[in-house]
Amino acid sequence: MSVQILQSLIQSVPNFPKPGILFRDITPLLADPKGLRLTAKLMADRIENLPHRPTLIAGPESRGFIFGVGLAKYLSIGFIPIRKQGKLPRAVYKCQYELEYGFDTLEVHQDAFNKEDQVLLVDDLLATGGTASACVELVNKAGANVLGSIFVIELLGLNGRAKMPKDIAVESLIQYD
Predict the structure, then answer these.
(1) How many CA atoms lie within 13 A of 16 on its CB side?
(2) How many CB atoms neighbour CB 103 within 10 A?
(3) 154 class by beta-carbon count within 10 Å (0-12 exposed, 13-18 middle, 19+ buried)
(4) Of 45, 134, 148, 153, which one has the fewest beta carbons inside 10 Å?
(5) Using the 8-state DSSP alphabet, how is residue 163 labeled?
(6) Residues forming beta bridges with residue 12, ordered by sequence position
């Protein structure tokens, strides 16, 4: 029942950002305080079966920040931002990944993690898996262990799970074909 509440707060917008795309708009979910709290609770429930309790949450900008900080607050643990290139002020690790049309780069501070950290990756959407797999690579470069990942939405037809390392749990609250 709870997932249906979240689904009711996500609007489908046809032909955005281009013809033939059905965009899943989370803006109404973000505007609903009960929906945000429920999202954090459902994410926390889904990760109960991980082999370890996460010590940190990490998420890519920008919507990974929103849901990642919400879950970190719910679990009373810290949050590490994974940023677009050039946004962090100190020494960083970088990971370039492929987009539909070109490449992008994500960065994380080199001192963001330690080798004892058990990290959970959080984002709003798992589509092709490029961003998520780049985040895993960055956390590993920084010396921490990625326990798993959780997403609000997963677009099954784009098979993003296939890009994720097989030893990392992948969870999503809502799946669309």
Answers:
(1) 7
(2) 9
(3) buried
(4) 45
(5) G
(6) 24
DSSP run (H or E) holding 56: strand 56-60
Here the tokens at position 168 are: 């990392």
Please report the sign of the dihedral spanned by the C-alpha atoms of residue 100, residue 85, residue 134, residue 170. negative
The model's pTM is 0.96
Supply the DSSP symbol for 62. T
Query: 71 exposed, middle or buried (CB, 10 Å; 0-12, 13-18, 19+)?
Result: buried
The catalytic residue positions are 63, 100
Count of residues making up the chain? 177
What is the spatial distance between Cα 85 and Cα 177, in angstroms, rounded to a whole number?
A: 31
CA–CA gap between residue 129 and residue 31 (Å, rounded): 26
DSSP 115-158: TT-EEEEEEEEESSSHHHHHHHHHHHHTT-EEEEEEEEEEEGGG
Report pLDDT digits (tens) over 31-78: 999 999 999 999 999 999 898 999 999 999 999 999 999 999 999 999
Taking alpha carbons only, the member of 145, 152, 157 closest to residue 170 is 152
Contact 118, 147 (CB under 8 A): yes
Look at residues 27, 2, 1, 3 and name the one whose alpha carbon lies nearest to residue 13. Answer: 27
For 15-34, the pLDDT digits (tens) are: 999 999 999 999 999 999 99
